[in-house]
Design a protein that fits this description.
Helices cover about 0% and strands about 55% of the residues. The protein is an all-beta fold and about 120 residues long. The strands form 2 sheets. Strands 2, 4, 5, 6, 9, 10 and 11 form a 7-stranded mixed sheet that branches. A 4-stranded antiparallel sheet has the order 1-3-8-7, with no helix packed on it. Strand 4 and strand 5 form a beta hairpin. The termini are far apart.
């Protein structure tokens, strides 16, 4: 059974870079045909897709966030990471990682990120 756990600092100042790491257990992130995604949820915007990294290592991003995001992975640790640059208070949200099989999503519990000076 796959388990996903987000981690990273909860509070960040405007204009800084925020990285959130997802540690996966029970399944390899290089397993064929799987994708590993990031979402966020805020009261004002609802659920928003950020991007995903495929089993091959290729990436895809939401057009609205593409200029400020990057995804990376560490296969030796079975982790993938979201990097969000030049954050603003509008980036305050709960950030979730998820595994996508193409038909289903398995979610982490989420981690709160607050952007405030």
């Amino acid at each position: 059974q796959v388990q996903l756990q987000e981690s990273g600092p909860g509070l960040v100042k405007p204009s800084e870079t925020r990285s959130v790491t997802c540690t996966v257990s029970g399944y390899s992130i290089t397993t064929n045909f799987l994708s590993w995604a990031w979402f966020r949820h805020s009261p004002g915007k609802g659920l928003e897709g950020i991007g995903y990294i495929r089993y091959s290592g290729s990436t895809s991003y939401s057009p609205s966030l593409k200029s400020r995001t990057a995804l990376s992975r560490d296969t030796s640790k079975n982790q993938f990471t979201l990097h969000l640059y030049t954050v603003s208070p509008e980036d305050t949200a709960v950030y979730y990682c998820a595994r996508s099989t193409g038909l289903t999503l398995n979610w982490g519990r989420g981690t709160q990120v607050t952007v405030s000076s």
